[in-house]
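Hello,

I think I submitted the nickel (II) ion job twice by accident. Can you confirm which output corresponds to this input? Input:
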Amino acid sequence: MPAFPEIEKIKYEGPDCTDPLAFRWYDEGEVVEGRTMKEHLRFSVVYWHTFRGTGSDPFGAPTMLRPWDDGSESVENACNRARAAFELFEKLGVPFYAFHDRDVAPEGASLAASNKNLDAVVAVLEEEQQRTGVKLLWGTANLFSNPRYMHGAATSCNADAFAYAGAQVKKCLEVTKRLGGENYVFWGGREGYQNLNGTDMKRELDHLGAFFHMALDYAKQIGFDGTFLIEPKPKEPTKHQYDSDAAACINFLRAYDLTERFKLNIETNHATLAGHEMQHELEYAGHQGMLGSIDANTGDLLLGWDTDQFATDIYLCSKIMLVLLKYGLSPGGVNFDAKVRRESFEPVDLFHAHVGGMDTFARGLKVAAAIRADGQFDKFIQNRYSSWDSGIGAKVEAGGVDLPALEAYMLEKGEIDPNQSGRQEMLENLFNRYI
Ligand code: XLS
Ligand code: NI
Ligand code: NI
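Support: Only one job matched these inputs. Its output is below.
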């Protein structure tokens, strides 16, 4: 029995179409900058929000209507859910999905039982992947929900929690490899602290570094050659998460000699929690060669926590796509780490949410491509830094200029060349021209 019987495969109908369940911008075969939209955007649906989200919040009970799900923690229910998930992926026409080990299969009474449950569901995932051609963007282990991880996993004060987490990652890497996953993600979960006076920060970070090296070693052993991704987030659940933003993550990866196989998975809502624009985080990771993938969502600036909403802001998505076109995304993707609101409880809302998200990113892609084709911002930047193209600027960039040389230069010249306007408002107006 289909899970979404009243929904047909979503089709591209063009910008004038008024059907809310049609794409107005996402035409997967349309070529932009030499590649199809499908190849650029590499859309992915997340299992946790879309198939495990219940709508419960600290003030209220679950609200979601999910007729295919009997609400039990049985393997059979997990397998039914997997089939419903692939029906949604297919009807949306997304090429990828992503999961945590514990989203797809129930945790058992022991580690061995959990592994067995996972294997049973993975067999269905494998079958469904083959049937539909939908691929796994990334797998990840949930190292934060179970109470054993209350003090963290790899950074726990309890060495047994570290060991359990290691065992879980080992299994999840095997499963990710079996399913042909293109990446493997570590989001810090509870890797952080609540009270520094009870925390040995150095020891915890050393353990985290060792943990990642163990993952790399095991990946090599089993022949998993996907990219490892760290997902920065500054707070929630702990008050300080070690992977607080792109810069902190990159510094950590360098300090522990991990930059070769690791990149970053940047999430919009996490960027804003860190006090950054998404574009900043992407640009920071991008110019360091560390941009791996994105978790596509948005927060609500009036709420201020990780609300994980679907992004429908054309400006936001255009700015994101501008950076993604600059640095490239593959083998990452645009992964909808987003959930429908508690009040949007019907199955069809899952389609409204994803169709809107996909369309807004497709539109952002076109806006970004138009901006790049026009080259006005590039020209502005080039001109803005032109003092570095010759004279003292070029000498400094070439290296070999020291402070006495700068002094001699300035003593002779007397005063700097006049500054030019930053043209903030002109730049904002210019951006609007492409929307
Ligand atoms: C939580 C994170 C999480 C990761 C996967 O805030 O966004 O969903 O993407 O563990
Ligand atoms: Ni995320
Ligand atoms: Ni998040």
